[in-house]
Amino acid sequence: MENDYKQAIEKMEEHFKKLEDAVYVFVASLTLLIKNLVGEPKKQEAARTLNQVAELAKKAFGKDFSPNLQEYKKK
User: Fold this and answer.
1) Contact 60/41 with Cβ under 8 angstroms?
2) Engineering a disulfide at 65: which of 6, 30, 43, 54 sits with its beta carbon 3.0 to 4.6 angstroms away?
């Protein structure tokens, strides 16, 4: 039973890491979209939304997902 518990924890940690990587890609993709596709009138609003997403991701994962992505470091 303890072995099953350990396996479940390991699988959950693995899925959590995949989710973290997916959020990183999502924020990076949004950053590129805003830079390249959003017109000037909406750019400020889009950037504000992106910053909110990055802040929520930081709270969830404890890592910086800021739009410049300079501080995000994979372990």
Assistant:
1) no
2) 54
